[in-house]
Amino acid sequence: MIGPNTCLLLLALLETSQALRYLGRVNPATKELTWSATGVSFTFSGTSATIGFEAVTGSNSAELIVDGKSTYIADVKGTSISTPSNLTSGNHTVEFRKSSEALFGSIFLGNITTDGTFGSDSPISSRKIEIVGDSITSAYGIGAALPCTNTAALEIISEGYSVLTASALKADYSIISWSGIGVIRNYASSQPDASPTMPERYTKYGANDASGSYMFPSSSAPDAVVINLGTNDFGHNNVRPKLTGEEYTAAIVSFVRTISSSYGNDPTFFLLTSPMLNDGYPAGEMVKSTQRNALTDAVTRLNGTRAVVVDWPDQGSDLGCDYHPTPNTNLVGAGLLVESMRSVLGW
């Protein structure tokens, strides 16, 4: 026989499950926040709410947004995080998002509680964007200026072009990014990077899950997919052969077709050139032009799949950690992407 206390507990759990919504690609079986900007959102009526953590591994930064007001957490510690103590009794909206990328660490969500009652989640935008990329998309080093070395605390994803773009377009979004990754090969070093390239890593549910674990549910199918890969592909650092435009074009075409067939909803693809590539370095290689031309060729070959190139200018001397884009450079990229998406999608 089920006692009254058990019934109350079951009702509370049911209420919570209905109120919570995972943000981005979060495996509900593990509740592990891995990818940048993954998290949870909910509403409640009361004066406080607490998000419990089953575990926190490595280093993680995060953002807590309560009723539209953001608090940045440079180093997530402890077993929980609570809403501000000065909330008045009433209805409140909460978002908790991991800011740093998967390679630094993970946050495992636990119980979420309130002194009041949970409500239905805020309306979800009908517009969905998926952004796929490398360190640029991870907002690597965006929180400081050169000279500095990147840390989890400096990856402030809300200042990155991806979140700026989605916010401007009032779109729901998911970010799949990993620093040093490429579409055909990863960052060039004396010891070859044998870790997965993006076409394989993209098939993971959480970033630490098995390859092929993500099932591409129709409810998450994006209207638009942004691909910002190539910075690491074209880098050779004199330890490997130069990449040809033809090799890059073929890899992009293959990846786009894989994504399109995985979701099966024929999204529009926005292919970004890299602000970290330019025609002056390495000398005589004209890398930026090679990438731009290769992406243009990819669009031509993707006949039947709607795809456009968004040319992001060189970042110049405005540099973040390890020569990565600053908030200003990300604003430029977001502006160009928003303009293109509005023109193509009518948003």
TrEMBL record:
<feature type="signal peptide">
    <location>
        <begin position="1"/>
        <end position="19"/>
    </location>
</feature>
<keyword id="KW-0732">Signal</keyword>
<dbReference type="InterPro" id="IPR001087">
    <property type="entry name" value="GDSL"/>
</dbReference>
<dbReference type="InterPro" id="IPR040794">
    <property type="entry name" value="CE2_N"/>
</dbReference>
<dbReference type="Pfam" id="PF00657">
    <property type="entry name" value="Lipase_GDSL"/>
</dbReference>
<dbReference type="GO" id="GO:0052689">
    <property type="term" value="F:carboxylic ester hydrolase activity"/>
</dbReference>
<protein>
    <recommendedName>
        <fullName>Carbohydrate esterase 2 N-terminal domain-containing protein</fullName>
    </recommendedName>
</protein>
<dbReference type="InterPro" id="IPR037461">
    <property type="entry name" value="CtCE2-like_dom"/>
</dbReference>
<dbReference type="InterPro" id="IPR036514">
    <property type="entry name" value="SGNH_hydro_sf"/>
</dbReference>
<feature type="domain" description="Carbohydrate esterase 2 N-terminal">
    <location>
        <begin position="22"/>
        <end position="115"/>
    </location>
</feature>
<dbReference type="InterPro" id="IPR052762">
    <property type="entry name" value="PCW_deacetylase/CE"/>
</dbReference>
<dbReference type="Pfam" id="PF17996">
    <property type="entry name" value="CE2_N"/>
</dbReference>
